[in-house]
Amino acid sequence: MSKDMTEIAKPTPRIDRINRTFFDGCNEERLIIQQCEHGHCGRYVYYPRVCCPHCHGNRLTWRQVSGAGRVVSHTTIYRPHHPGFYPDAPYVFAAIQLDEGPLIYATLPDAPISETLLGRPVVATFVPHAPDQKLLAFCLAPQD
Predict the structure, then answer these.
(1) Within a 10 A sphere around the Cβ of 10, how many other Cβ atoms?
(2) Looking at the domain covering 16-140, what would its CATH class be?
(3) pTM
């Protein structure tokens, strides 16, 4: 018996002790990322890890950030690699430079498909992904 495409579940993130705070923040609709506590560094870090990729220090603290940023690259997904995403296609997937510095990749669920979005301001939003997990996405902010 074949499954109807609407019955196919999307893959879920592998949540572990290193990234749990980030995913718990998504469920609370808060963007929480790490910041290096070494005085000479202090940079924000994404994706979650055990040491700073900039200074290699091991003192990272979780901080809520604004969720504001700008689109630095994007593409439109017409043919997803997993059947769970077929009903969402086409959709925009983008690289977002957060105001705090890190680059985050996420969907832009309500973005127009047919125009360039480079440089457009965005704000974090959180979308249902699985019964018990929301994921980070971004929506276009009003232009200046």
Answers:
(1) 15
(2) mainly beta
(3) 0.90
